[in-house]
Amino acid sequence: MARQTYLIQCGKYGAIKIGSTVNNIERRLKALQACCPYELKILHVLKGIKFSEQRLHYTFDHLRIRGEWFQYSGSLKAFIKDPDPSRILGLKQMRSLKVANYK
Q1: Of 48 and 82, more confident
Q2: Which is nearest to 9 in space by CA: 36, 46, 48?
Q3: Please, which residues have CB within 8 angstroms of residue 11's CB and are 6 or more apart in sequence?
Q4: In what order do the strands lie in the sheet with 16-21?
Q5: Bridge partner list, 98
Q6: What angle do CA 26, 51, 55 make, to 5 degrees?
Q7: pLDDT at 84
């Protein structure tokens, strides 16, 4: 299975986890949910870009809380509402991007 980069939100307006997995995304959500007292929700899954997780971490570093968790505000909030890859990725990478919206 190809690597998938995901955006998962903690609670309705809580922090966003930007991570990646080669496993089933629902299985990853269940593993994370076991350690979190608040409901987690998959917002988006990005497929087909090898370094998209690192690129998203770099792009939203100014919103980093700790590790792979980021504040739900500003540019990250805008990206979640409209995950246009041109905001963070080069044209070559955009051609191979597929976004699955879980809303």
Answers
A1: 82
A2: 36
A3: 38, 39
A4: 64-66, 69-70, 16-21, 4-10, 40-47, 98-101
A5: 47
A6: 100
A7: 72
Candidates 37, 43, 41, 39; CA nearest to 56 is: 43
Give the pLDDT confidence of 49-64 residue by residue, as tens digits.
Answer: 645 888 889 889 999 9
Contact 13, 72 (CB under 8 A): yes
Q: How many CB atoms lie within 10 A of CB 46?
A: 23
Residue 69 contacts residue 35 (beta carbons within 8 Å): no
* Strand pairing class (16-21; 69-70): antiparallel
Quote the pTM value: 0.80
